[in-house]
Design brief:
- The protein is mainly beta.
- About 5% of the residues lie in helices and about 40% in strands.
- It contains four helices and 53 strands.
- The longest helix is centred in the C-terminal third of the chain and has 11 residues.
Length: about 750
């Protein structure tokens, strides 16, 4: 599988060889407090749903964290492979970011559960007011593959009704009645009662793989309601024939939807107990089931979990906003442990994966707190968002790594800081060591969304820092050290007076600046990415030593990386990186979608030319932030990419798969798409490989999946008549007993 994963890492479309960056995923050693991180470039974790899944079919349970990353519902799967190595009694994991590209596009929530009993975990995820399921159809030795099995799970009422699951919730998906198939617990649309949907697959077909046999058993499972971060017992709720809501309660208007349900048999009595997290709470609630697997009855509750029943045994789960718990195997001893994370932004971020080891010697559970930063302690993690720049802070001739952030969580608030990693390696082989998480004392300024850019702004021979912020203000860290010595800064708040003159325009919110001489007059201008997806241009009309900026345009080059409005609203979060390429100005622009757009810039006064809307197919997570500069002294640029999750990825000109385009060229020749451009019907033919299983997925230029189909023949046709005119990407995965092939091709719909 590995060679195909590596190939997909550097997708090079046959029509656009010239439109790619010649970099591939790579690594640089990173050290924190004398410890070498095992997976430094794993992209960070913020607000996650955590599951077990055997990603590589080696018989060991790996970990997938579906990270919603920031305030947007669109998430990214972070994949961690179980290495099988024990360290101090704990299984170790290695990050495999490439695997995230094999998961379907998903938003809101996603968990892995094996519904068809084939030993491969499938994917249950959010869809409009309900639950969607992708089947895991990976074959041994093949690439990870999912196929849409059920676009919306319904019950068997007449007419069928969808099983409701709120977009900001996580339903409980487990075998409630111990009959071998997966049942569903979910809150009612009003967010008050827990509904129980029994899966009748085993009873109906004597197999467990049907998603068409759910029946609602009760609208009041356990006889409880959630109420003000507590659980009310002994509730009576009516079940109306033919469906419908339960009898209203006097205080029902105070209730709301948005809860996560974790089912586990904590006391070994063969019925499911419940851990409940709620959108308005900072603790979870434990509900002890004193009934049976067929008739639940919650008899005791606590908010002190997992201190129950031993009230002082371990640290309580208490996260700032909407904690959720996940019952997963972590330690490698076959017993399931407990992970707690926030389920929305505005909470813990750089220490947001709390791990509790199950130390029970029986079939009960005994969760003991281990750490607050499971997996995060092995990666670069700077809280919410990461904005990287390279900056030789100590003037030793080697480029150090400086990272801005929206903020580290700290006692109910987020505080922006600058994190500095010193290059302690060599010019050709860098290595980064953490120096401080509050470089230049930025924490004291009480800022949010601090985005740095560097350059010699006053032409005195040393490098200054300019900070963009959430409010659109700019702060100048003026380097007064001089040439050849470590930087020393004078802080100039709200510098440059960008909006004070009658002819000027205020900079945008969430301002992402870059100092770059766009008009080639020898002075650094301010190019500012905006929250709306466009780029502001402020020309430097000052002297070489005294910068002064004047507004030119709020739509530089016609660049607009705004995301799909149904997913991201009006936001785009443009993050520009301009650079000189053999005399030609080029632009990489990060965006809210996570994609990176690639442009040539003929002149500062005309529109940019879009080279590729999805450079290299890279998408490491929402709010991508590219920084493209030579770090290993080979004369070729390398790529750092930040994202909303607070971590980084690294793609090097020396990466082991930079030359992968030759392999991909051969693979692309085996799969033909025609006609292209296409009007109504797209033909797909596969040559020299016998197709046994396969999938075809079509996404738009923003990465949104708009079509998916299973294929089993070497010749297929797809009706694309309903697609709007424009550019689309077709991902084709085919497999047989000998091999798996995955390619992506661009088509134009007329």
């Amino acid at each position: 599988m590995k060679k195909y994963l590596l190939a997909f890492t550097c997708i090079l479309l046959t029509q656009d060889w010239y439109a790619q960056l010649f970099v591939a995923r790579d690594t640089i050693s990173v050290i924190e407090n004398g410890y070498v991180l095992k997976m430094p470039w794993a992209n960070g974790l913020n607000f996650t749903n955590v599951s077990n899944i055997d990603l590589n079919l080696d018989g060991k349970k790996d970990i997938v964290a579906f990270d919603k990353i920031n305030q947007f519902s669109v998430g990214r799967f972070r994949c961690f492979i179980n290495t099988g190595v024990l360290l101090a009694g704990q299984t170790t994991y290695s990050a495999n970011p490439d695997l995230s590209y094999y998961f379907p596009a998903t938003a809101n929530w996603a968990v892995c559960k094996d519904y068809d009993c084939d030993g491969k975990e499938d994917l249950f995820c959010s869809t409009s007011a309900g639950i969607m399921v992708y089947r895991n159809v990976t074959i041994p030795g093949g690439a990870l593959t999912f196929s849409l099995a059920k676009p919306l799970i319904n019950d068997n009422s007449i007419p069928p009704a969808n099983i409701y699951a709120a977009s900001n919730a996580v339903p409980g998906i487990v075998d409630i009645d111990n009959d071998g198939d997966l049942d569903i617990l979910t809150f009612s649309p009003g967010g008050n009662f827990v509904e129980y949907y029994k899966n009748l697959s085993k009873e109906t077909y004597s197999i467990c793989d049907s998603l068409n046999t759910f029946t609602r058993v009760t609208g009041c499972w356990g006889s409880i309601i959630e109420y003000f971060c507590g659980i009310s017992l002994n509730q009576i709720c009516g079940y109306k024939p033919g469906g419908g809501n339960e009898d209203p309660l006097p205080d029902q208007n105070s209730l709301h939807s948005g809860s996560c349900l974790t089912c586990l048999d904590s006391d070994g009595d063969q019925d499911q107990d419940l851990i409940m997290g709620d959108i308005s709470c900072n603790v979870v609630q434990f509900a002890l089931n004193g009934g049976t697997s067929f008739s639940a009855n919650i008899v005791d509750t606590t908010r002190l979990y997992p201190n129950f029943p031993n009230k002082a045994s371990t640290q309580q789960i208490k996260l700032n906003n909407f904690p959720c718990a996940y019952y997963v195997e972590v330690s490698g001893d076959t017993k399931k442990d407990l992970i707690a994370t926030p389920n929305m932004n505005g909470s813990e971020n750089y220490q947001s994966v709390w791990y509790y080891k199950n130390t029970s010697l029986t079939n009960t559970v005994n969760f003991q707190f281990v750490k607050k930063n499971f997996l995060q302690d092995e990666m670069i993690e700077v809280g919410q968002n990461s904005f990287p720049v390279l900056f030789d802070y100590d003037s030793d001739g080697k480029k150090d790594l400086l990272i801005g952030t929206y903020g580290y969580y700290n006692i109910n608030t987020l505080n922006a800081q600058l994190t500095l990693y010193k290059n302690t390696g060599t010019a050709a082989q860098p290595s980064y060591s953490l120096i401080t998480r509050d470089y230049a004392n930025v924490l004291a300024q009480n800022l949010n969304n601090v985005i740095p850019t560097v350059g010699d702004l006053d032409n005195d021979g040393d490098v200054d820092i300019v900070l963009g912020t959430q409010t659109g203000q700019f702060h100048w860290l003026k380097n007064t050290a001089g040439v050849g010595v470590p930087a020393t800064f004078t802080y100039i708040s709200n510098a440059f007076s960008l909006a004070t003159s009658p002819t000027s325009v205020a900079p945008p919110a969430a301002a992402a600046p870059q100092l770059f001489d766009i008009d080639k007059d020898g002075k650094l201008d301010l190019m500012i990415g905006g929250k709306n997806g466009r780029i502001w241009f402020y020309k430097n009309i000052g002297t070489p030593t005294v910068p002064q900026f004047t507004f030119v345009t709020s739509s530089f080059g016609g660049v607009n990386v705004q995301g799909a409005s149904n997913l991201y609203g009006p936001d785009g979060y443009a993050s520009p990186f301009f650079y000189d390429d053999a005399g030609t100005t080029k632009l990489l622009c990060g965006s809210v979608t996570g994609l990176i757009s690639y442009y040539s810039v003929p002149s500062y006064s005309v529109n940019c030319n879009l080279i590729n809307a999805t450079a290299n197919g890279f998408n490491e997570g929402a709010q991508s932030v590219p920084y493209f500069e030579d770090v290993n002294n080979d004369g070729k640029r390398d790529l750092f990419v930040g994202n909303g999750g607070g971590g980084l990825s690294f793609f090097s000109s020396k990466g082991p798969d930079v030359g992968i385009e030759e392999i991909m060229q051969k693979k692309n020749e085996l799969i033909l798409l025609f006609p292209n451009p296409v009007k109504q019907t797209l033909n797909i033919t596969v040559d020299k490989i016998e197709v046994e299983n396969g999938t075809v997925t079509i996404t738009d230029i923003l990465g949104k999946e708009i079509f998916a189909k299973n294929i089993k023949l070497n010749s297929e046709t797809i009706d694309v008549n309903e697609l709007q005119p424009g550019i689309y990407f077709v991902k084709i995965i085919i497999s047989n007993k000998e091999q798996t092939l995955s390619v992506v091709k661009k088509i134009i719909k007329e």
